[in-house]
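Hi V.,

You were right to ask for the full record rather than a summary. Here it is.
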Amino acid sequence: MLIERPPLLYRLLSPHGIWRLPLRDRKGVYFTFDDGPIPEVTPWVLDTLDRYGVKATFFCVGENAHRHPELVAEILARGHALGNHTYNHLQGLKVTTARYLDNVAEAEALLPSRLFRPPHGIMRPKQARLLKQHYSIVMFDLVSRDYSRRLSPEQVLANVVRYARNGSIIVWHDSLKAQRNVRYALPRAIEWLRGHGFEIVPLISQLLRDEQ
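Predicted structure:
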């Protein structure tokens, strides 16, 4: 549970981030995808989301966006939102604040977005404070752990079933490591969530609504 649903203390240590967005009048969750885009997985994810009429936010690594600009364009063309996930999937604790901000800016040149998610959900407090001036820092309420080779596809689905709640920002991955698990768990999670009264709401629309 320490990974699948970050504990309260962990959230309090990162007060600049948005961890959860409960809906006032209904049950809803938000789908986000990290670490793409890549041709082996992202097109399948987009086709699956289209099939179910789901809109998501893709927190892209700038290096992948540079390699596959056609996939960035396709994400936008299909009505999804982009987010910045640094240029090299850089961990903020391992570098200076100046280098981290430069890396984020390098990704922004390829990813027109005011949404940011730090890789691994970790960065220095100063980095967070400075980035908060320009971005909505989107963290997460539920990590599917689809990237884990130690988990079966069924276990990844079980994580979503167990921890989803109103307002959950759910993390999936359109990456090679996640490919086997996400192909199994994503469509089944959509069906389970809808069967249990959850809407899958576009994150960007809810963020804009909350700011009004």
